[in-house]
Amino acid sequence: MRCAAGHSFDIARQGYVSLLTGKGSAHRSDTADMVAARSRVFEAGLYAPIVAAVAERCAHSRVIVDAGGGPGQYLEAGLTAAGDHAVGIGVDLSKFCARSAARRHPAALSVVADLWAGLPLRDGVADTVLSVFAPRNASETARVLGSGGRWVVVTPGTGHLAEIVRPMQMLSVGQDKTRRLAEEFGDRFGEVVEQRVQSQVRLSESALTDIAAMGPAAFHRTPEQLAAAAAELASGGPVTATLDVTVTVARRR
Ligand SMILES: C[S@@+](CC[C@H](N)C(=O)[O-])C[C@H]1O[C@@H](n2cnc3c(N)ncnc32)[C@H](O)[C@@H]1O
């Protein structure tokens, strides 16, 4: 691919395009092991209620951008809900995520790019932007959304996986998420609607390891440490944990 300024970018054999320039990014992105763990969690249906809530918000969309989309399960579900005429663009800093996202749906494009360097899209082209457990660049989201477009943000609540956060040495959720989100919306977004999604999941030892290993705990703990924590926690059998997230939808003014 070649841009208007004459820079060229290779389309990888696996179907994604990396738009990172030579110096790359200072930010940490998901590794191959994290992507594999995340994919097993989705394949086991453990996050199904969250996937369903996000997909519902994508109905009638024509251009869906999954910003910090990871391996692309939410984009896949959103495109399926949106129907035949929709296209999706997964944007992630991780090439391992981009490889996975490129394969998920025939209408999905997959791009490696740094959200903080800007979304590689023209102004106003998207009607839905997803930010699911991902970094959020509010001004870029506002720029690429057309008027009336939806920003669908998923944030964990304080109860999210509360039973396992400490024993699995995962990072706990900050308390000021709601205030931060309101600041990000500012006056560019309105009609804010929140839906809380809560449900219980039964987690086996391997599912416990995967849930910890797909997130930031993987940057701070070795696989052996996470496996040992899971073995101890599930020594009496599968553990019940709570999913508790808020799906917030805001409209671009
Ligand atoms: C917790 S994961 C969530 C992935 C996906 N949305 C999901 O919920 O399955 C956060 C994602 O953000 C990506 N990410 C982190 N910093 C980024 C950046 N600066 N630009 C683009 N993606 C980034 C990571 O590589 C990772 O895939």
From TrEMBL:
Residues that hold S-adenosyl-L-methionine according to the record: 47, 160
Binding residues for Zn(2+), per the UniProt record? 3, 7
Claim: Glycoprotein is one of the keywords in the record: no
Q: What SUPFAM superfamilies has UniProt attached to this entry?
A: S-adenosyl-L-methionine-dependent methyltransferases
Q: Is Metal-binding given among the entry's keywords?
A: yes
Provide the GO biological process annotations.
methylation
The superkingdom listed in its UniProt entry is: Bacteria
Alphabetical UniProt keywords: Metal-binding, Methyltransferase, S-adenosyl-L-methionine, Transferase, Zinc
Q: What's an example of a GO molecular-function annotation for this chain?
A: methyltransferase activity
Domain (23S rRNA (guanine(745)-N(1))-methyltransferase N-terminal): give its ranges.
Answer: 1-20
Q: Which InterPro entries match?
A: RlmA_N, rRNA_m1G-MeTrfase_A_prd, SAM-dependent_MTases_sf
Q: What is this protein called?
A: Putative methyltransferase
Q: Which organism is it from?
A: Gordonia sihwensis NBRC 108236
